[in-house]
Structure formats: C-alpha cells, structure tokens
Amino acid sequence: MFQRLREDIACILERDPAARGVWEVLTCYPGLHALVLHRRANWCRRHGLHWLARFISHLGRFLTGIEIHPGATIGRRVFIDHGMGVVIGETAEVGDECTIYQGVTLGGTSLTRGAKRHPTLGRNVIVGANSQVLGGFTVGDGARIGSGAVVVKPVPAGATAVGNPARIIQSEADAAREVAAQRMGFSAYGLTQGDDPVALAMKGLIDNAAGQDHQIALLWQAIEKLSGTSRELPSPECVPKDAQTVEQFDAERLNRLVK
After folding, report:
1. The domain containing residue 112 runs over which residues?
2. Structural domains counted in the chain
3. What is the DSSP string of 20-86?
4. pLDDT in the model for residue 197
C-alpha cells in the first residue's frame, strides 16, 4: 500500500510543476485522494462487499469531485490532475503512467450488463481536459487526446485524437498541416476528415499557403547564395531587405480570412 502511495506522490511531483513538496501533494491533491479511496473500494468489490464498495466510491466523489466506479481498473503511477468532474466507468481500464485532466469522461455507449462498455487506455496515455472517451474500444500506448475531444472509435498507439467527433492525426500530411496551421495563428483541430466542403477548402488553403511559403523561402535563399559568386546577379546588398528568406505567415491576415 505504502509503495503505491510513494509511486503516486513521485509521479505527481514529476509531472506537475506546481507541486512544491510531498506534504502538499499528500494533503491537497484530490486526484491522489480519489485513487487511494478507489483502491479500497476496488478491494471491497473483489471480495464481494458491493454495497461498501459503492459507498466508498460515493464518499470519494463527495470529497474530491472525482467519480471512479469500484469496478474500474486503474494502473500504477496514474495522475489525475485537478480532477473535478472526472468520471471513470465500471469496465474502464487505465494503464500505467496515464495522465487525466479535469472534466474527462471514460464512459460507455451500451446498456448491456456485464459487457465491456467503457474504454481501455494503454500505457502513458494523456487525456486532455473536458474530453469524452465513449465506448468499449482501446486507446493505444502513448496516444494523446486533445482537450474537448469526443472519441468514439479506437485510437492507434502514438496517435493524437482531436475535435468533435474526434479525428486521428497520425499521417505525416496531417501532422504537417497541424504545424502549419499553428504557425498561422490558429489550430486546424476542428476540421473534419472529408465530409465538410468548408473543411476541405480550409485544408487546401493551409497546404497551398505552406507550400508557397516554403518555395519563396528557398528561392530567396538561392538568390542570396548565388549573388555572392555571379557577376550577373545582384550583390547581397541589392537584395531587398524585406525578402522572405525564412518561412513565415501573416497570422492576422489569415484570421481575417477565416472569420
């Protein structure tokens, strides 16, 4: 028991820069309190004390704002940060090293008693604030779920799920598009995969802008390089000061475009 408690405290001190010491974590972190109470409730359930298990779970919800069903399986070194509003269902499984933020629901979509109704999180999964993971599927090891996402299908290991309904960012093209969108001053997380013509147009604009920006930067870099060795090309002093030799975006102009 004390070994698990030491692990929990150590993982909080490692992952939360606001944590100032062991005593503060032990007395002021509801995520830690909820996990400790859940272990008691889970033990009672496994030994046939179902009412007592639910009562301990209810007490934990009252004290911490975190509801973990006694039947849920929680791994080692799980960190529930802030925690208010977190709900973890009966057949949910949370792997080792996972991090869960406030407002998260690991819920079910089936009413079949005894069935696997709630999700399984692999190792080292991060679930962002106010996201909903609904169904008896698996979220792979090292996956990330963005804040506010609504996930209703499996997430591959190492992938990121964002948006409502969530889409999977895994391919190089999607990842590059997200990086380009962030540099332009907004996130493309809300875009759907292919059923919205406006979303498709936005994807095309992002890809086109990123490609043009890259090509312009390469052209100016080539001009600067050649101007020092060729008499027919202008000297470096003649290259315009506002020449775009590095990739950049006018975020304000793009924001006006998408409003």
Report:
1. 2-170
2. 2
3. --HHHHHHH-HHHHHHHHHHHHHHHHHTT-HHHHHHHHHHHHHHHS-EE-TT-EE-TT-EE-S-TT-
4. 54
